[in-house]
Automatic annotation (TrEMBL):
Pfam families: Hydrolase_3
Protein name per its UniProtKB record: Cof subfamily of IIB subfamily of haloacid dehalogenase superfamily/HAD-superfamily hydrolase, subfamily IIB
CDD domains: HAD_HPP
GO molecular function: magnesium ion binding; phosphatase activity
A cellular component term, taken from the record's GO annotations: cytosol
Cited InterPro entries: Cof (IPR000150), HAD-like_sf (IPR036412), HAD-SF_hydro_IIB (IPR006379), HAD_sf (IPR023214)
The organism of origin for this protein: Shouchella lonarensis
Length: 258
């Protein structure tokens, strides 16, 4: 069989509802690698949020910050940062509406508020440590992504009003702030330039709104059974729930496992 390049999202795809890696998923990835396929991660998380997972799976290639930071076999090959001037305007606007922000740099992440309940509930839902407090971090550091905390009813204050940014909701209280046009699909395209794989070789697995572009990009796209309908409709295949060996079932659907 022709060698494939397979990208897996993390939350709700590799990790189950308890943020655990199912044993069947770990075994499946080991088999894929033994068959000579290339396995990578495509996540909205920062790289410091999934170091242990990469080590456990033996994966050294990944796309993070929703495509803004691409690492190929341990080497950083692509960066896409938020426009500093436009972000300063966003930060001021969000502050007037009492909407906190988390600033995500390449080495760490900080917040302009640390005791806001929206930050606490959202960040704890992905089982990582809460950010440190540094309201001026964005003034002196490149940001690959930011987290904006507001309700879905307040989202209209931002979408369409900041043309250099895209806003993608991932929690009832939180949205990712990305450079306009930045996506996992763009990150995969950057990865392909270095790896030599063609688009026909790309397989992707995801479950969230931030996966829509990469599901549209790949001819072999798989949505998890736990994904919302909008995500399932974008994918060519729909597998079982992540808690029900969804990765193994999906790999069988696309013919990568017998």
């Amino acid at each position: 069989m022709k060698k494939a390049l397979i990208f897996f999202d993390i939350d709700g795809t590799l990790l189950d509802d308890e943020k655990q890696l199912p044993r069947s998923t770990k075994q499946a990835i080991r088999v894929l690698k033994e068959k000579g396929h290339e396995v990578a991660i495509a996540s909205g998380r920062a790289p410091y949020f999934f170091q242990e997972l990469r080590a456990e799976l033996g994966i050294d290639s990944y796309i993070c910050f929703n495509g803004q930071y691409v690492v190929y076999k341990g080497e950083l090959i692509y960066e896409n940062i938020l426009d500093a001037t436009a972000f300063r305007d966003l930060e001021r606007f969000a502050s007037t509406h009492h909407h906190p922000l988390v600033f995500m740099g390449g080495e760490t992440f900080t917040a302009n508020q640390i005791d806001h309940p929206y930050i606490i509930e959202s960040i704890q839902s992905i089982k990582v440590d809460l950010p440190s407090h540094d309201p001026n971090y964005f003034e002196t550091n490149h940001l690959y992504q930011a987290l904006l905390f507001c309700t879905q009813e307040e989202e209209h204050l931002y979408t369409g009003h900041f043309p250099l940014f895209s806003f993608v909701r991932w929690h009832p209280f939180a949205m990712d702030v990305l450079p306009k046009g930045g996506s996992k699909a763009n990150g995969i395209a950057q990865y392909m330039k270095r790896s030599g794989f063609s688009q026909e070789d790309i397989y992707v697995f995801g479950d969230g709104l931030n996966d829509l572009e990469m599901l549209a990009f790949s001819p072999h796209s798989v949505a998890m059974g736990n994904a919302p309908d909008e995500v399932k409709q974008q994918a060519r295949y729909v597998t079982k729930h992540v808690n029900d060996d969804g990765i193994v079932h999906g790999l069988k659907l696309v013919g990568l496992l017998p």
